[in-house]
User: Fold these one by one.
Assistant:
Number 1:
Amino acid sequence: MARLEHPSPTAPHYAWFHCPGCDTKHAVSTSGPGCWTWNGSLDRPTLTPSVLVRTGRAVDSAWVREEGDPPDVCHSFVTDGRIQFLSDCTHALAGQTVDLPELEPHHG
Ligand SMILES: [Zn+2]
């Protein structure tokens, strides 16, 4: 089953995956300037270079965290359907490599 959604229904030049560290979706562009290279596989995707997501206090030192906010930093390599979290992640999966979760099939 697919671990990457591409194209996204609302953004055709973006691919999405569900990040188990942030428990939210991350998107990368797959065409245009600065885009990621994708191996073309939905089941066992590889994206290069790494995916770095910075929010909250990582971009604003005055940020006040609230319940439900995503982790401040998520930095990962998606390779062959697995996600390797680098040590600079601020979530519990920092430094670990896990399978990307399978996505529910789309209906409509
Ligand atoms: Zn993440």
Number 2:
Amino acid sequence: MPEGHTIHRLAKDLNRSLRPGPVQASSPQGPFATEARQLDGLLLERAHAYGKHLFLDFADGPTVHIHLGLIGKMRPKEPGTGIEGAIRLRLESDDALWDLTGPMTCALIDPADVADITASLGPDPLRRGARREEFVDRLGRRSIPLSAALLDQSVIAGIGNVYRSEFCYLVGIKPSTPAKTVRVEAAEQIWDLAVDQLRLGVKLNRIVTRTPSEVGTTAGRIDEDNRLYVYKREGEPCHRCGTEIRLSEIAKRKSWHCPTCQK
Ligand SMILES: [Zn+2]
């Protein structure tokens, strides 16, 4: 599933390529056709993200709420590209074309709905004004394992399986540790990491958690096999201590850690 950095990057790219509009909207696949007709010809006022939720505000019109879910994709295509696959929503301007396929959610909503959705979420480290204290407070109230709490969107918005595994490693805490026993300083460290890491993720449009100096290159040049510490690295040596990375199951989700670096 795409994590928050992907959705924030998407909002940035959509703002850059489709504003100031007008935007032609269509739903070649069908189920969103009536809604797409309502949007057709409107100006895209702003695309913005909160956690894994994407909102497209149209001037004097409704907001499109998109959640990509597990398999959804929203991708730029060459203008003039024909219809390929099940395209739920196509947005076009004179020189840009975006196709949305396979979303978990694609719906027209009003400002009250936007407020309800965002009120259900924890602070998003990529949003201006997001408060570290709020995250620390919410984390401290959960007795579930740390790695499960970091996936809970009402604790922190935008974190998925890759970042949560990597954050536990980077703060040196075992993923199974109950969230409420994590010390305040460590919780603050997790938040600060999230802010830095997700910002880098937006910039690079991919997740790179390794410290560039350890790899001997820049973050942008770290190759696919070297960009993470633990995620999907079971059986391989820890980049820092050489111990085999271990795979376990926590709250029914796969979780990775280094038994030496994470006590
Ligand atoms: Zn290690």
Number 3:
Amino acid sequence: MIDDMCISCSEPITNPICYRCFLKQIHLWLYDKNFEKDVINEILREVRKEVFVDSLSETCCILCDDEYVAVCSYCVFFRAANVLKRFGVNNELLEDFLEIFNYQLGHASYHL
Ligand SMILES: [Zn+2]
Ligand SMILES: [Zn+2]
């Protein structure tokens, strides 16, 4: 069986996690950092727009087993980080964000 490719970077998707599960994790992180509820909702709406894509992939999310995954975790967090940047999240927090998710997903590093 061949791994499905990320439609954004063309790398195989090794940790398929769907946008819903990603949004949940991002939500928790924002909540943990004491962002205002309104801001959290706005950020999540923007991130959703960025990361949601129609998928022809047959790779199911490893967390919920309910959604197909077309974009790899690296690309999703990269896009999410750019949204956070647009919302004026400072570099210190951005690094924290990327470190946590890097660590969880086993990626070497992000280059924003
Ligand atoms: Zn990718
Ligand atoms: Zn999922």
Number 4:
Amino acid sequence: MMGIFDSHAHYDDSRFSDDGFSLLEQLFTSGSVSGIINVACDKKSCYTSKILADAFPFVYYASGVHPHAASEWDDETEELIRTQLQEKKCVALGEIGLDYHYDFSPREKQKEVFERQLQIAKELDVPVILHSREACEDTMQLLRKYRPSGVMHCFSYSPEIAKEVCDLGLYVGLNGCVTFKNAKKPKASAVVIPEDRLLIETDCPYMAPEPHRGVRCDSSLLPFVVAELARLRQTDEALLIAQTEENAKRLFRIS
Ligand SMILES: [Zn+2]
């Protein structure tokens, strides 16, 4: 079994509080993962993501504020993100974006905080990890304006948008959602993404792939995502694993 690069995980989530460290240890000793990016969503998880990255050589992290937490944005948070992005293990600004499905923060606030973080990423020349749900138009408008480098994770839009995202120079991240029977758009988009732009992720503890949908997800379930992507793209699983690891390391400048 080749190690798979998990480009988007949340091992600092409370659902891993009992066994997260031993689980990570086991994932690496078993060789099932080749690297993990632990992605922050709010100020607290910027700190907890860093703790995980400091503890494990193959764990990297992203520092940023998710649209759900946009309302908590303040100068102190910006300072923290800027400081963390100077560290070697902090490889991206994220996750950032817009979520009009839950609307946990007001849309105007989400847009303001997303735009601010896109500006910081430009200024510091770092990639971004994008979250966009039911907010395609507003997201694309800002991406066309700022043209960041980065990845749109948990991609849920049409193949046409996938193509435009790649034309803008971005990568596309797919996870367990691509295995769901009703996931017409992710399945159709999985086919059009160029091989040098595709990333694989868990988004754990969420998005456990079929046939484990609904359980707590972790990186050991990635082979189900790889199998479905290989089937859809009519390619070899080993090639897909090697290519997506190479893509992640290129994007996040990991040597
Ligand atoms: Zn996430």
